[in-house]
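Collaborator request, handled under Task 6.
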Amino acid sequence: MTVDGQRPVRAVRGPKGVRWSPGFVPRGGVSPEAHRPARVTESRAGMSRIPRLPRLDGLEGNILKLAALRFLCWMHLMSAVIMPFFRDWGRLSFAQIFALQTWFMLVSFLMEVPTGAVADRFGRKVSVAGGGFVLAAASVLYGTFPHLAVFVVAEALFAVAITLISGADEALAYDSLLARGRESEASRVMARLEAAKLTGILAGALLGAVVASRFGVRWPMLLQAVPLGLSGLVALTLTEPPRGKEEADDGGGYLRLLSGGLHHFRSAPELRALAIDQVACATVAWLVIWLYQIQLERVGVPLAAFGVVHAAMGLGQIAFLSRLAAVERVVGGRAQVARLTALVPAFAMLGLAAATGVAASVALIVAAATAGLGRPPIFSGPVNRLIPSERRATVLSAVSAARTLAVGMVYPAVGAILDRSLVAALVFVGVLGLAAAAFARAPARLFEEPAAPTGG
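C-alpha cells returned to the collaborator:
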C-alpha cells in the first residue's frame, strides 16, 4: 500500500522485532519511533540514572489506559447481588433467569464475529468506546421497570456492547506490543490487564453490596452506568496501533474481513485446538458466577456478605495471575497450569454439592473462581501468535462466539435442574467440567512462549 503518496511501506520483522521502512507514519500521525520503550537518562553530573516516567500518549500509554478501561468497564455493582436482583426485584424464576441468559448468549453469538470485523474495519478504539457507552445505556434501561420485556431488550444491548469490546481490546493490546517489538510479553501483559479487570470486579462487588443493603437491589444496576460510561471516555483516548500490510481499508471492506477471519479460524488446526480447550472449560467456570450466590443462601450467608465473597473470588484471581510465572515454575510449565485450572473448578462444583458449611462453601467457591475465571490469560499469548494482526479482532471474536454458544447451550439445562435441586445442578456442572478437562486438551507444545528478541 502507499501512505500519503509515498513509496510502499511495510512492517519488517528483524532481530529486534518489528521495524518500519523509512518515512512511514501510521494512521493517526504517530511515527513508530515515538513508540520505542522509554530510555534511562543520565543526569548532568553523570552520577545517577533516572528512569523516565511511563508515557500516557501513543502506543506506550495504551496498556496503562487499557488497564484503567478494564477496571471501569468491569466495575459491575450488580455482580454480588445479581440473583437477588432477578428473583426479588425482577420476580423471575430460575428457569426464566437462565432463559434470559440464554437469550443474551444467542445475541452475543450472532454479534461476536460481525462486531469483531467492525473493530478490524473501523478501528478497535471506536469499537471499545462504543461498547462502554452502550453498556451504560443498558444498565439504566435494566433498572427502569421490573418486566421481562424490558429485561429482554436490555440483555440484547448488553450483548451487543460486550461483543463490541470482546476481542477488540485484546487485539489492541497485542498489536500495541507487536508494534514495539514486545509481543513475547503478551501473556504477562494480558495477565496484568486481567488483574485490572478483576480489581474492578472486586470494587464493584463491595460497593454494590453496600448500595443494595441500604437502598435496595435495583440501585446497583442503575449506578453502575457511571463507571461503564467512563470506560467509553477512556477508550476514546487510546492510540490505534498499525496492523500490518493488509489493513482493513486496503480493499474488500467489511465482508472480506469477516469471511477472511472465519476462514483463518477454520483452516488453523492449532488455533482450533486451543479454542476448544479454552471454550469447553470456560463453560463450567462461567456457571460459577450464577451458582455461588444460591449456594451461599443455602448455607445461610446473609445478603450483605455476598460482596465480601465476590471480592474474595476476585482477590483469588488477582493473586493467581500476579504470580502466574511462579505457579508455572512450581507445576512444570504453562501447559500444566492449563490442565490444573481445568480440573479445579469441576472438582470444586462437586465439592459444593456436598458442602453444608459456610467455610467449606466459601473456600470451594473461591477455588473454582480463581482457577476457572483466571484461566483465559494463559491462552492469550498462544492464541494471538497464531492470528495475523489485520484479522486479530475478528478471529478472537470467533473464539469468543464459540464460548458463548457453548455456555448458551448449557444454560437451559442448568436452569431447569436448578428449579428442582441446587445439588443436582452442581453435580451436573461438575461432571460436565471433568468431561471437558478430559476430552478438550490442547497439545502442550502450543503453550510454549517464544524467546524474547535480543538486541544485535
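The cover message to the collaborator said: "Residues 63 and 189 are 8 Å apart (CA to CA). Residues 186-215 form the longest helix (30 residues). Please let us know whether this matches your experimental observations."
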